[in-house]
Design brief:
The complex is a heterodimer of chains A (142) and B (105).
Chain A: E1 3-7, E2 13-16, E3 32-35, H1 37-44, H2 53-65, E4 69-71, H3 75-92, E5 100-101, H4 106-109, E6 137-139
Antiparallel strand pairs in A: 1-2, 1-3, 4-6
Chain B: H1 2-12, E1 15-19, H2 24-40, E2 44-48, H3 53-61, H4 63-66, E3 74-75, E4 78-81, E5 86-89, H5 94-103
Parallel strand pairs in B: 1-2
Antiparallel strand pairs in B: 1-4, 4-5
The chains are: A alpha+beta (142), B alpha+beta (105).
């Protein structure tokens, strides 16, 4: 079960089954202590802000850089998908994939937040022209 | 004959297309759906699911039937016959959609 962990040196928050051995921010070893989700929320609270469309676009471009996929070159398609994701974030809380529907089961629905784990999906895995279900991410041409 | 044709049309109009406003696959399928309506008189009830809670709840109510045939999830577009529970999802060719829709008659 995933838990929240806090670096006692720099207050980095980690969410996972176990904490990182080395804090990626302050590089201190064995610095994480388990905390409650409420405490994690309070620590992260002041930094809570939504991401602009341009910032999200940059984030997914950076996400693709060291991977075998890229953002779809069809700009109109990407813009439409971003419209959907940002509408979903505003109306439903998270950037859910506009081409699927939430089941109203929080943990299940986390699988629909963009970028999702599309590498394992049948629309991508083992396909030369693979793409995620909505088509935002496509396999890079060799 | 007229009655049979009417019944056929009635039954066909019960086909549902679950779609989403910002889904490119749904957008791509709309001309196929319009063509089926015009050329084959096959009508779909088009239900948008991200901006309409009632439609979303309806699609979720069919999750046990739809999800196993659509990669374990509720995906758009999904073409669904609530009478037979027959499903086809995703972006497909006009011919494939037509074949599926005609089978529902």
């Amino acid at each position: 079960m995933k838990k929240f962990w806090r670096c006692y040196v720099c207050n980095d928050i980690h969410y996972g089954v176990k904490p990182p051995e080395v804090c990626p921010t302050c590089l201190v070893k064995n610095a994480y202590v388990e905390i409650s989700s409420a405490e994690a929320g309070t620590i992260m609270g002041p930094t809570r802000k939504t991401m602009s469309r341009a910032e999200f676009r940059q984030a997914i471009e950076r996400f693709c850089e060291k991977n075998e996929f890229q953002v779809c070159p069809d700009t109109a398609k990407v813009e439409m998908l971003l419209d959907g994701m940002f509408a979903n974030e505003q109306n439903h809380g998270l950037k859910y994939c506009p081409c699927r529907l939430v089941a109203k089961d929080f943990n299940e629905d986390l699988k629909l937040v963009c970028p999702c784990n599309f590498i394992a999906h049948e629309t991508y895995k083992g396909k030369e022209d693979g793409e995620c279900w909505c088509g935002l991410f496509v396999r890079r041409k060799k | 004959m007229l009655v049979r044709a009417f019944c056929k049309e009635e039954k066909m109009s019960k086909l549902i297309m679950f779609h989403a406003l910002e889904c490119p696959h749904c957008k791509a399928m709309m001309p196929h759906v319009d063509r089926l309506e015009n050329e084959e008189k096959i009508a779909f009830e088009k239900l948008e699911v991200w901006h309409n809670d009632k439609n979303a709840d309806l699609m979720r109510s069919y999750r046990p039937v739809i999800a196993p045939k659509c990669g374990g999830q509720l995906r758009t577009p999904t073409f669904f016959n609530p009478e037979s529970n027959d499903v086809i999802c995703g972006e497909v060719s006009y011919e494939k959609l037509r074949e599926w829709a005609m089978k529902q008659a």
